[in-house]
Amino acid sequence: MVVLGLTGSLGMGKSTTARFFAEAGVPVFDADAAVHRLYAGEAAAAIEAAFPGTAGEHGVDRAKLAQAVVGDPAALARLEAIIHPLVRREELRFIAEASRAGAPVAVLDIPLLFETGRASLVDAVVVVSAPPEVQRARAFERPGMTEEKFRALVAKQMPDEEKRRRADFIVDSSRSYDSARTQIHAILRAAEGLPIRRSGAGD
To answer: In the chain, is it the N or the C terminus that has fewer CB atoms within a 10 Å radius of its CB?
Structure first.
């Protein structure tokens, strides 16, 4: 089974692309959703121990946690040391289940795939991209988006040009939904013949 890593910067249309992969019958793992589940359950106690006052009976308070780690690389590293192994375990479980089900291709939807050094965990990378003006317009459709927040979020991410350079496949999301679906089906046809190159692959 070939595992594709799906990524893309803020406002590029990655979530919609992930939905189109799922529509095509491809198993898709949502890393952000996995983090939300872990914050609400298994990871809450460890995060509260590391960052007192950030979690309660309903799990981690994301706003309080953000205050505890923002602008503090050491604190962010402590948080990542807690959450990344748990997310990776969920990814491996997902890959094993998809492989047992006979899926020829599976997708790991990981927003910061390159930034967190996780590209080696997949067989090929799909980058969702759009021109800067499209990215900006989409980003500012989000509730609470400000110029300061937009700049801060973009600054945390690898430039789109570099992501495109490193990509095995690129989805241009600036055109129609039908265009994106056509691109995705072409990627899936190409992906089924790819070699398995991810580190630690066992299927």
So the answer is: C
